[in-house]
Amino acid sequence: MRKSILAIGFLFLSLTSCNKELPKNTLEISGNIEGFKKGTIYVQRVKDTQLIAIDTVKINGDSHFTSTIKLDEPEMLYLFIDRGVTNSVDNNLLFFAEPGKMTIDTNLDFFTADAKISGSKNQELYEEYRKVVSRYIDADLDLIKKRFESSKTNKSISSLDSIDRERDEILKKKYLYTTNFAVNNGKYAVAPYIALAEISDINIKYLDTIQKSMSAEISKSIYGKKLNTFIKERKSNP
């Protein structure tokens, strides 16, 4: 009987430790980079326009990793891998972090393209946004290629102008979609972030609309404050 009670006690302790809540303002990232057997993982943030490491994880044989950092609010961070002697441009993964538990699973061959990130609503919204915007980007790249090929075959100026007008229309659609997306998600940090990162040169009236759509909490967030400052500066220097 005593052994049964002890066994139940150990099981209870095990379960409670697994479900133990993180301290406030803490981010725990766990995951797996398949094929990454030796090297270093850096969690980075932008500070004064430069990337700085806020945590370091050494990998030696096991591609699973865990990183725990202090994070006061949602923020775009980077997961950078140092492959050692292997050179690759596919080393830095952008992700929208939030306090709490997040998972990042990917592989060494397609580090950014195959990444599956969960545990962050802002990341979920950002992925939704990028999925749509990528269509506009692809369409614009097709037109750039078309214009280049047309210029080589001595097409008329009017033909080239027509392509340029198509590109302008695509850009307008991208900017309009981005504005609507930010307005519809004003209670999330992703809204002011994409306004600054994607359409900072848009007509100021659209930035005003985004600013007014932000919740009080987001207006006081890191990106909300940056957007407020940016709009103020643009208005003072028209």
Spell out the blueprint of helices and strands.
Blueprint: H1 2-18, E1 26-34, E2 38-47, E3 50-60, E4 64-70, E5 75-82, E6 92-97, E7 100-107, E8 116-118, H2 121-152, H3 157-184, H4 190-198, H5 204-213, H6 216-219, H7 222-236
Parallel strand pairs: 1-7
Antiparallel strand pairs: 1-4, 2-3, 2-5, 5-6, 7-8
Explained architecture:
The strands form 2 sheets. The protein has a 4-stranded mixed beta sheet with strand order 4-1-7-8, with helices on one face. It has a 4-stranded antiparallel beta sheet with strand order 3-2-5-6. The longest helix has 32 residues. The chain has 238 residues and is of the alpha+beta class. The radius of gyration is 23 Å and the shape is globular. It starts with a helix and ends with a helix. The chain contains 7 helices and 8 strands, in the order αββββββββαααααα. The protein folds into 2 domains: 97 residues, Transthyretin/hydroxyisourate hydrolase domain (Immunoglobulin-like); 114 residues, no CATH class. A hairpin with an 8-residue loop joins strand 7 and strand 8. The N terminus is likely disordered. Helix 3 packs parallel to helix 5, helix 4 packs across helix 7 and helix 5 runs antiparallel to helix 7. Helices cover 48% and strands 26% of the residues. It holds the Pfam family DUF4369. InterPro entries: DUF4369 (IPR025380).
Shape: globular
Q: How many DSSP E strands? A: 8
| Domain module count | 2
How helical, in percent, are the residues?
A: 40-55%
Which structural class best describes the helix and strand composition?
alpha+beta
Biggest beta sheet summary:
4 strands, mixed
Give the DSSP E fraction (strand runs of 2 or more residues). 25-35%
Distance between termini? 80 Å
- Helix/strand order: HEEEEEEEEHHHHHH
Round the mean pLDDT to the nearest integer and report it. 90
Over all CA atoms, what is the radius of gyration? Answer: 23 Å
Task: Count the DSSP helices.
Answer: 7
Kindly report the spatial arrangement of strands forming the biggest sheet: 4-1-7-8
Report low-confidence residues grouped into runs of 5 or more: 2-18
